[in-house]
Amino acid sequence: MNQFSYQPVNAPPLLTLPNSTSALVLGIISIASLCCCSIVGFILGIIGLVLGINAVALYKQSPGVYTESSYQNANAGKICSMIGLILSVLSIFIVTIFRASYFAIIKEIIESYSF
To answer: With a cut of 50, which residues of the chain have pLDDT below it?
Structure first.
């Protein structure tokens, strides 16, 4: 196999998928934001997932127009956004349960020491 791919002389250059890089960046940030704020990761995960799905659908409509690397970026962004979204929902669920049990314990302590 030849490592170089040749295009005809008059062929237009391949374009990058719109929002493919944005989907990837938002997916990565949604995962990274779990350490400080789950809500931000949830919102960014949804936005990144929508952008990734739209970019992949656009590529599948006309694959000969867009570069393969931009398709891979959109696909990776979609996957990262899904992971960030799932982890954000789990984190929000765990924090909610922890806070509810914490407040129940504090209420019980206050009632046992009521004057």
So the answer is: none
Q: Which residues have CB under 8 Å from 43's CB, separation 6+?
A: none
Whether residue 63 contacts residue 34, with contact meaning beta carbons closer than 8 Å, is answered with no
Vertex 92 angle, CA 91 and 97, to 5°: 100
Q: Where are the domains of the chain?
A: 20-90
The encoded tokens of residue 52 equal 């990734």
Rounded Cα–Cα distance for residues 66 and 111 (Å): 66
Cβ pair 20, 56 in contact under 8 A? no
Strand partners, 66: 15
